[in-house]
Design a protein that fits this description.
The chain is an all-alpha fold. It has helices at residues 3-34, 41-55, 63-86, 94-116, 142-164, 166-176, 178-183, 188-210, 220-235, 240-260, 268-279, and strands at 133-135, 138-140. The protein has eleven helices and two strands. Strand 1 and strand 2 form a beta hairpin. The relative contact order is 0.20. The model has no long low-confidence stretch (mean pLDDT 88).
């Protein structure tokens, strides 16, 4: 095979990894700062795709405005969900989190089915990406490069937020010792609302960004949350950079593994997750649980 073909597979794998990162990084951020295992995360990813369809009225010309509106809507919806449903169970056993977020997944799926119907909702390619790029003479969808650039921008902004802002320092401190942070006078409930809203906005943005490539359907929420958990388990629960590493590994494994064993393509992510759990149960960039004495 030609070099251009392998380069095309590499870019395809990175484009797929970009969508996985946008999906999983919010889940990892929420768990790291708040300790919430959000089974409804895939539902907000699905909701982002449907909201883009609604905001743009299914027209490619409204893509950019729709994308901004989806991000803003994700912040508002995330803040409301955290304030109304998540906050009352912070001090309850973890079983409450699992039951509540799973119930939210089912409720959101039914609400979307009620509002948009069960049929697939496809979205045309935005005019700016209508033509392919040519890599070593091989045509390549230009929208893939947009996805890679969007994921890189989100990763950089998250890094700048966590490392260069006071709010980011508080978020990192919350992953280490929430009680101490509260004792220092930080408004931890407001901090949690901010983190949850940001994580949900990222999930919604990821679902919206994927819509021109993949039609939206109410059933996509379950698949999305499974993929998100695989990524964060491989990278390490609560690690933003672990989510990036996990997404890239799965993306490249899928892109090149399918050339060797196409019938095993669906198994690769699960096999990699099982291997990581055997060798490093806390994930590649995660931290082992602290042992209290």
């Amino acid at each position: 095979m030609e070099l251009g073909f392998y380069l095309l597979q590499l870019l395809t794998g990175l484009a797929y990894a970009s969508t996985l990162f946008l999906l999983a990084v919010g889940l990892s951020l929420i768990f790291g700062a708040m300790g919430i295992v959000n089974f409804a995360h895939g539902s907000f990813y699905m909701l982002g795709a449907y909201l883009l369809y609604a905001f743009a009225q299914g027209q490619a010309q409204g893509f950019w405005q729709g994308l901004l509106l989806v991000g803003a809507a994700g912040v508002v919806i995330g803040a409301l969900v955290e304030r109304l449903f998540i906050r009352p169970i912070y001090r309850r056993p973890e079983e409450y989190q699992i039951l509540l977020t799973y119930a939210l997944l089912l409720i959101l799926e039914d609400l979307v089915r009620f509002a948009f119907g069960a049929a697939y909702r496809s979205f045309p390619m935005p005019p700016a990406f209508a033509n392919p790029l040519f890599v070593l003479g091989t045509p390549f969808p230009s929208y893939y490069l947009f996805l890679v650039g969007l994921a890189a921008l989100v990763a950089f902004l998250l890094w700048a937020f966590l490392q260069r802002t006071r709010l980011g320092v508080w978020v990192r401190a919350a992953t280490q010792d929430r009680e101490m942070l509260e004792a220092l006078g930080v408004n931890v409930p407001l901090l949690y609302t901010t983190v949850f809203a940001g994580g949900i906005a990222l999930a919604a943005l990821g679902g919206a960004a994927l819509l021109p490539l993949q039609a939206a359907t109410p059933g996509m929420a379950v698949d999305a949350v499974i993929q998100a958990f695989i990524v964060v388990v491989i990278g390490g629960l609560g690690s933003v950079w672990g989510a990036l590493l996990g997404a890239v590994l799965i993306g490249l494994l899928q892109a090149f593994g399918i050339l060797l064993l196409p019938e095993m393509a669906m198994v690769f992510p699960f096999a990699l997750m099982a291997l990581v759990l055997l060798l490093r149960p806390w994930g590649l960039l995660g931290r082992p649980p602290a042992v209290r004495t």
